[in-house]
Design goal:
single chain; 8 strands; 36% helix; Molybdenum Cofactor Biosythetic Enzyme, Chain A; alpha/beta; 17% strand; 6-stranded mixed beta sheet; two-stranded antiparallel ribbon; 7 helices
Length: 183
């Protein structure tokens, strides 16, 4: 992942060290206890491996409960306590209650559609249904939010794409990237 050895026996600081992350799972059946949450543990493990302080996934019903969970993290939580990374899984398809992208978009200050396009491209390597995901990605303050599909394959594809970009996303949001002279 993002933490790599810089010399024998020496390890760089973890990307997420000193930062928090959150995972929201949009699954009505998992929220009711009728099905297991299969993507939350994958996402939480990934973020913890990157060094983020990440609690267990928040599992909510599709629809408005996703919007409420996002508002709690992005609006109700004091800015200095907000997670730096928020990943949702589920609610990005075409079913009537798949509203995760709409609730996410209304809270973002700036969107980054190229990240979703990259996830579609990766997903298309194995399944044509990858393009049915309507996820969005973007920023609110110093928090990056991205919608992953609800399938384990879609989550693994999303991690593959975003893992390589996460450091640049984070330093850009925190404005700690040296852009150099702009010509």
């Amino acid at each position: 992942m993002n933490s790599q050895n810089s010399a024998v026996g020496e390890t760089d600081d973890l990307l997420g060290e000193g930062r928090s992350a959150a995972v929201i799972i949009a699954s009505t059946s998992a929220a009711r206890g009728e099905a297991a949450d299969t993507t939350g543990p994958i996402l939480v493990d990934w973020l913890r491996t990157c060094g983020y302080d990440t609690p267990d996934a928040i599992v909510v019903r599709d629809g408005e409960p996703v919007g409420q969970a996002l508002r709690t993290l992005l609006v109700d939580t004091p800015e200095h306590e907000r997670p730096r990374i928020i990943v949702t899984s589920g609610g990005t398809g075409l079913a009537p209650d798949d509203r995760t992208p709409e609730y996410t978009a209304e809270l973002l200050e700036r969107q980054s559609p190229g990240l979703i396009y990259a996830m579609w491209r990766k997903g298309l390597e194995t399944t044509s249904s990858a393009v049915m995901s309507r996820g969005v990605a973007g920023v609110r303050g110093r928090s990056f939010v991205i919608n992953f599909p609800g399938s384990k394959g879609g989550v693994k594809d999303g991690i593959t794409v975003i893992d390589d970009l996460l450091e640049h996303i984070q330093t850009s949001i925190e404005d700690t990237t040296d852009h150099g002279p702009r010509v």
